[in-house]
Amino acid sequence: MKKIILTILLANIHLFSAEINNKVVINIPKQDSNDMKIPALDLKVGESGIITRNINGNNFILGIAIVNDVNDGVATIETKKFESIKNIYMPNPIGTPNEGDKITFRILYDRALIIAPNQNIYQEILNNNKNIDFIHPDIFASYLATNDIQEPQSDDFRRFCNKYNIGIIFITKENYIDIFDCQSFKVITTDSITIKDTSTQKPFYTRLSDETINALFDLEDMKDYFNYYGVIRPNN
User: Is the whole-model pTM more than 0.70?
Assistant: First the structure.
């Protein structure tokens, strides 16, 4: 029964595209230490980018870069494996990032997910960010149900982001919104919000009927929205 419901849901979801021009591209300079450092520009701690190398006119992905520290105009970078595209018939990214390689930050910041307690707050965030292509939370609810996840942890969000090419997540708290980078699952910015509608929906706002939600989740064992998403922090 659960598989039938999920198939119907996914078949009726349509994605719309939008573009924003906030990407930051940096060529890696010569390194003087084991810690990779690049010009910080306007980068924030927690932001991520894709590291590429140009070979004979073709760009190859080497990994993911995450900003761990910003000090005096210099950003310290952590690198990790690129896992957004997994295919047994494609070669794995190889090579160590080096001088002359390129990092493109915020490459997927125009695709996001909203976690909100009710439709009014969801719609408010949507209306205030018209330059972002939001993946509907119905898809995330279906993903959680498919994988038997009641209350997602950082790795669950990261896997979902990689599957659907999402860069950031908006998570509504009681009087503000934390915006997380998908790869680092660190808060990169916080926006204030005045919540007039204090109603909550389990597990979060979706268009799914109560009957469908009850079929997909064990609501009795699930925390209320603000008891979980209201306090979720990096690395939960």
Answer: yes
